[in-house]
Amino acid sequence: MDTGPSVVGRVGSLLRALAAREPDGVSTTALAAATDLPRATSHRLLSALRDEGLVERDEATGSWHLGPECFLLGAAATSRHDITPIARATVLRLARETGESAFFSVRRGDETVCLLREDGSFPIRSHVLHEGIRFPLGVASAGLVLLAFLGERERTSYLAQARLEEQYGAEHTATRLRSRIDATRSTGYAVNPGLIVPGSWGLGAAVFDAHGEARWALSLTGIEARLAPPRQQELGELLLREAHALTGRLAPRRGHR
């Protein structure tokens, strides 16, 4: 028999998986695979969520989407948690000054969630990141820089159990990640040299809260020719300046955690 916490955990997993796939939607089978739930369990929970307006189904395609009640709940939480209006000007400025795609992401547990995306003027763009997509800490430049600036004990514990190489390849073993973390802490910014999609590079810098914890990240993505050295250092330093300035603007919101 299901217990309360396990049901809540399963529902949370389904809603997060749906959010990561909007606006395209996703099938019951794909949701079950993404959340490691039996298909029958997934369908039963999704049907219950549909009754509450938290999800809806496109009967023509069979795809599930977040429902209108999620929008209303999100709107109610905006005044406490939404810091994207403060970050938006920074993301726009990065995209305009560099010509690359710029992003703002937040740490949520052991993941990063992309909150903002703004494309620059360069015609070749990366589509690795989009608003709502999630990656584990250590994956992509935002995930790497946030992992790099965790406290040592928390970082060590995470690396001991993450097993990122199983999904993201050999460059994400704990040993390889430690080397990239050292490099990130040395320069202050993270580099993703096409490890998710070949040829699509990323740079990331951490944004800290009023308690000195790395909670958000600014990042840029683009093709290798534009993010590799020697331009890489210039872009990395720009990211660090913008991240430092944004940290200062977010500091007064220390009660909004």
From TrEMBL:
SUPFAM superfamilies: GAF domain-like, Winged helix' DNA-binding domain. Keywords: DNA-binding, Transcription, Transcription regulation. InterPro entries: GAF-like_dom_sf, HTH_MetabolicPath_Reg, Tscrpt_reg_IclR_C, Tscrpt_reg_IclR_N, WH-like_DNA-bd_sf, WH_DNA-bd_sf. It holds the Pfam family HTH_IclR. PANTHER family: HELIX-TURN-HELIX TRANSCRIPTIONAL REGULATOR, ICLR FAMILY, TRANSCRIPTIONAL REGULATORY PROTEIN. GO terms for biological process: negative regulation of DNA-templated transcription. GO terms for molecular function: DNA binding; DNA-binding transcription factor activity. It comes from Nocardioides simplex. Gene3D superfamilies: 3.30.450.40, Winged helix-like DNA-binding domain superfamily/Winged helix DNA-binding domain (1.10.10.10). It comes from the Bacteria. This is Transcriptional regulator, IclR family.
